[in-house]
Amino acid sequence: MDRHLFPTRSLRGTLRVPGDKSVTHRGLMLGALAQGESWLYHPLKAGDTLSTAGVMRALGAEIREEGAHFRIRGVGLALKEPGDILDCGNAGTLIRLVSGLLAGQEMFTVLTGDASLRRRPMGRVTAPLRQMGARIDGRDSGRLAPLAIRGGGLKGIRYELPVASAQVKSAVLLAGLFAEGETEVTEPAPTRDHTERIFRHYGLPIEVQGNRIRTHRAQPFAARDLTVPGDFSSAAFFLVAALITPDSEVMLEGVGLNPTRTGLLTVLKEMGADLSWEVTEGQDGEPVGWIRARSSQLKGVAVDPSLIPLMVDEIPILSAAAAWAEGETFIPGLEELRVKESDRLEAIAKNLNNLGVKTEVGPDWIRIFGGSVQQGRVEPFHDHRIAMAFAVCGLQTGVTVHDAEWASISFPSFWEDLDRLRGKD
């Protein structure tokens, strides 16, 4: 379905974005492993996380939707062998993290997903899990889904991540809950730490010393309620929309402000953004607060590569900001974008060119020459973040977004929320 957006004069209002996708995935998994009943409050209910709920149900957990929340009755550390293949849909976080869980279970499972997910690399996860003793097979020698996992009999390992990846780190740590001895993961650079925080929330073994994270075999643990903060990655679309649209001011409330997720705020401030934010509460281990964005004259910058792991999902919307900035913006360290839901680096360049913005692209970098956005057509390439980022990029000039429904993978109310800020109720 195409969505046509006419030129936008201003954006104004206050908004609460849906629950954090990363925390929702982990809350569903840990709730399923707990003993007893718990509530997952204000989760994201979207394509990816509904896939996680479905997989955990197939593994024995009772997960019911109660209004805006999930009620979960866990089965404990021993999940039930499913009677069919587990469908992970489009959710890369799900297939990688649940591979870690299933590697520790004395049973046989098969994981698959949609065509996009079956193209995404799994070798970075299956390699350390095999080192721990899991028997995993799949296409291309286990580097692509579908994956067949025969778990159990794991031993702890010391594993140095070849690239900074919260998903690989989390898969190994989850497997470590079922392994004999200690499991240690060393990160080359900090990545989002939702797994470490949720382990602490549930009282699971976790020790963090600098870039080393350790865990060991878990004992049965009691269910606990978990409140999910608003998703910073979803908030980012409206922050940038307000910055690049004249006469605009947008306030986002209840947003997760985990410092391993907010590298975008640092870069936008360097670009001259009129942004303010404050942590106002702690919510089950996650810092939560508000962010305000006002129209700004942005300038191009060279992004510090050390910030990329702290904003990897926000590169598409940063590219939209760079398209409206004065001068050049250089973004390095983007090799991970090649293996997201789409080849995001290529998708960013093609959509910027569709909107009249000059770019140069290398194997792991992009240079954006800002200041010349035109009316055009956006192609999401089956990627929710590309659809939303380039809808924002074309707001002032007018834009047509092809296959606009891809936004629902992570942000089902995106188009309605955007219309409300545009005064289109």
Nutshell version of this structure?
The chain is α+β, with helices and mostly antiparallel strands and 425 residues long. The chain is built from 13 helices and 22 strands.
If you had to describe this structure to a student in words, what would you say it looks like?
This protein has 425 residues and is an alpha+beta fold. It is 30% helix and 25% strand. It has 13 helices and 22 strands. The chain has helices spanning 21-33, 47-58, 92-103, 123-131, 139-142, 166-176, 194-201, 232-244, 263-270, 315-324, 344-354, 384-393, 414-421; strands spanning 3-5, 12-15, 35-41, 62-66, 69-75, 86-87, 108-112, 135-138, 144-150, 158-160, 182-186, 207-209, 212-216, 226-227, 249-256, 274-283, 286-294, 328-331, 358-361, 366-369, 376-378, 399-401. The longest helix has 13 residues, at 21-33. The relative contact order is 0.13. The model has no long low-confidence stretch (mean pLDDT 96).
